[in-house]
Write a structure and sequence with these properties.
mainly alpha, single chain
Length: 193
């Protein structure tokens, strides 16, 4: 992919997934840079994956930059939601809870992708607790209510077993592997009541 500069969706996806599984992130940064210059429309399609990979490698600032650069362009609703989610997740991982909640709250309230809604609601819930413990002011007062709303939206649409099957189908996508334990934690949170 890098040597021949031949970029197509299947080869890029295979390249990304194989390097993530190997834990070799350097070539992925090179691919992201080359793709953003040579094929920007294709780069935008893969921007959520590049942001997720940056989070996995601990490069939270790069994840925010990647996702925000993609959000500045015209994207599909699903890609836009995932890029917005990764902005919030990266900020959450940096323990910057107020901007994290600011990014995640609209997704918890009005997101359409079930996994984005569940993860955003869960992170809003946990982020509100962590912000309270650290005496950090949140941008709005109704964060717990928005998190509960997200939980109710997903829990009523999916039962526990249906949600488990949904996640199993989604595991074919590398983003579920990257998110790892977070999906398990969000699932426990969804059906804990």
């Amino acid at each position: 992919v890098l040597g021949k500069n031949r970029y197509n969706r299947p080869s890029i996806r295979l390249f990304l997934e194989s390097h993530v599984l190997l834990g070799d992130f350097g070539p992925l940064d090179i691919l992201s840079d080359k793709l953003s210059r040579a094929r920007p429309a294709l780069w935008r399609q893969f921007a959520p994956r590049f942001a997720a990979i940056s989070i996995l490698s601990g490069a939270y600032r790069k994840a925010v930059e990647t996702a925000e650069a993609a959000l500045a362009a015209r994207l599909s609703r699903r890609t836009r939601e995932w890029c917005s989610f990764y902005v919030g997740l990266a900020r959450y991982m940096e323990k910057d809870y107020s901007p994290a909640v600011t990014a995640l709250l609209p997704l918890a309230r009005a997101g359409r992708d079930p996994l984005v809604v569940a993860l955003s609601g869960y992170l809003c819930s946990v982020g509100a607790v962590r912000a309270d413990e650290g005496n950090v002011a949140l941008p709005v007062d109704d964060v717990p209510a928005a998190a509960a709303e997200a939980r109710d939206r997903i829990a009523t649409r999916f039962g526990k077993e249906t949600w488990r099957r949904y996640l199993e189908r989604e595991r074919a996508d590398i983003r579920i592997v990257i998110l790892g334990k977070l999906t398990d934690q969000a699932s426990s949170w969804l059906f804990s009541a």
